[in-house]
Amino acid sequence: MSVSLSEFWHWFVLAGTLVSLVLFMWLLYANRHTSENQTTGHVWDGIEELDTPLPMWWVGMFVLSVVFSVGYLVVYPGLGNFSGVLDWTSTGEHDSQADFHDRRFAPLYRELAARPLADLQADRVAMQVGRRLFINNCSTCHGVSAAGTFGYPDLTDEQWIWGGDFDAIKTSISAGRTAVMPAWGPALGEDGTTNVAHYVLGLAGQDHDAERAAAGKPQYDAICVTCHGPQGKGNPLLGAPDLTNNIWQYGGSLEQIYFTISNGRTGNMPAHGELLGADKTHILAAYIESLSQ
Ligand code: HEC
Ligand code: HEC
Question: Residue 140: which of 151, 128, 124, 129 has the closest Cα?
Answer without folding.
Answer: 151
